[in-house]
Amino acid sequence: YCEAQPGTSPVLKSLATTFKNKDFRVFVLQDIIYFLGLTMFQTGLPFFVTSLLRFDESMSMVMFVGLTAASLIFYPFITKLAHKIGKKALVVIAFIGFVITFGFTGICGPGLKLNIYVQAVLIVLLGSFPMAIFGICPQAIVADIAQSDEILTGENRSGMFYAARTFAMKFGQSAAMLIFTSLATIGAANGTGYRIVALVAAGCCAVGGIIMKLFNEKRVLDVI
Q: For residue 1, what pLDDT band results from cuts at 50, 70 and 90?
């Protein structure tokens, strides 16, 4: 359902022009923060399971599968909600959901006076809805930005927009691994570092949500 039109601009010029788009710069910045927080959490999940919740290591796979399966259940509802309240609003809600999920993970454990199995289920349920939103909305937002940019500039650079977004994703993931490695070693014996990782990931999502509020979705959609 597309009409392929090869780009004519050199790669570096096309990349520079892509980042001149203000709406895309705001989106990329929140995207970096998102992948920073998400990667720290996903990397730390096996350690949260064993060190904080005191489960066997095999439980981390169960929770990973549970997060994925539960998020898939929400997919049909996400597409309907996107039409009703907008993709930007959904992404902000997702950030709030991850702040709650990661923040709760940071304080979980036997000392919480809540059954550890209940804590594990809550982490899965709390994280699945925002995960479903981020599985759909960001890609659609990039498509909207690329389409509006094509209308304004007369040049189709959709491929470059997605390439730039992928670069931002890799940058966030790489930075997350460095930060995780540094923080996880703090109080390794009692899991303090892992709690700090979860709370820092929650903080990243809070910042990401604030940045996303600056994204002018109305301007993009009005152009389209």
A: low
Rounded Cα distance between 212 and 183, Å, is 26
Contacts with 3 (C-beta within 8 Å, 6 or more apart), sequence order:
none
Alpha-helical runs (H) found in the chain: 11-19, 22-47, 58-85, 87-107, 116-153, 158-184, 192-213, 217-223
**Tokens coding 90:** 């959904």
Spatial CA neighbour of 36 closest among 170, 186, 183: 170
Q: Does 154 have pLDDT greater than 70? A: yes
- Return the ∠ at Cα 215 (arms to 214 and 221), rounded to 5°: 145
Tally of CB atoms within 10 A around 80: 9
CA distance to 46, 55, 186, 190, per residue, from 50 (Å): 6, 5, 16, 11
| Strand segments (E) across 9-71 | none
Distance CA(155)–CA(190), nearest Å, equals 56
pLDDT grade for 179, boundaries at 50, 70 and 90: very high
Q: How far is Cα 4 from Cα 103, in angstroms, rounded to an integer?
A: 45
